[in-house]
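Entry:
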Amino acid sequence: MRIINLNEDSKNTLLEQLIKRSPQSYGQYEQTVNEIIENVKESRDKALFDYTQKFDHCTITAETIQVTREEIEEAYTKVNPDLVEVMKKSAANITKFHQKQLHNSWIAPEEDGTILGQKILPIEISGVYVPGGKAAYPSSVLMNVLPAKVAGVKRIIMTTPPGKDGKVNPGTLVAADIAGVNEIYKVGGAQAIAAMAFGTESIPKVDKITGPGNIFVALAKKACFGFVSIDSIAGPSEILVLADETANPRYVAADLLSQAEHDELASAILITTSRELAEKVSVEVENFTKELSREQIIRSSLDNYGNIFVAETMDEAIAAANEIASEHLEILTVNPFETMTKIKNAGAIFLGEYSSEPLGDYFAGPNHILPTNGTAKFFSPLNVDDFMKKTSIISYSKDALKKVHKDIELFAKEEGLTAHANSIKVRFENER
């Protein structure tokens, strides 16, 4: 891996490189995506069947588009039983963590007759998109579905592309069953997003769409936002390791590679105050890479977006980390909890040498669907609130309104909204 001195110029160059990976940078695909969406809106199921034939080389009909219970039971026979048990343990951890995020409706009455409050309810139906083929990750199924279940969403549907044989990835089906998905449909790509956003004869319109996907899926979510809520427009995976001289170089190297193997656009960054550590990590990265199954993907990722930065001070390293606002941030310093207090922007923070990033991906419980491409500055991980809607409650007595009605009338008149003012004034027109 490249070893670079951290300064303002090298930091800005890195930020420019990273932003180019954003789905927002792939406008050349937008016309294709928009055409797919319009076709699904117009032709509904027929469009889904045609696109499934075209892109997935699979014939789907109204009778076969929904996954049956028999297909789910068959999937269980094809998944390692030990993995099934691990998925159940992971699901329990994810559920337990997200239960702590629940909020209740509240009412706050005042002595003057004012009653204010907030009604908090789950959305009625959510949709989850799950990629197919090599990008099918059962862990993401759990992470997308379980927060919705905890929130109280009654109907959760899933769309995922079928293989040429008309079957869905077994791991996906088992994970969906463990998580409690109500309906699973065999459709993928931008057309699946459009189906969930607008509804077809077979697939219901949902209130929110979550889940990862390729550039066409990402752009479709972007195009449908407003007609339906979405989680985010996710970019490629990224990890930033913040380390001092006490860090184990083998651990650091292994953790960097855990993200580099995702795809060629993944970024793996180390910022350290120790040049010795930087050099040792670079050697370990090379040694590990030779042994790993996704060597070519890793090398491409590291060539383009893999960097080791050496900072003069930890404060400079932390400042850079906050600017980058990485999806995953590992802190491997002498006192990681103290360092953590200075971090403002990160999707998830992993503290200490026994809290490597895959722990969060698979098992710990916090959601692994995280903001990317610097959006951790203003976005949060997927959570229970994403599946809740909040309604304000307002009730004033006559006496309470009487005390403030002239203030409201003045405010409205100053904005030129005389009907607003009159709506308040008419209630006191017979009083002096």
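The mean pLDDT is 94.
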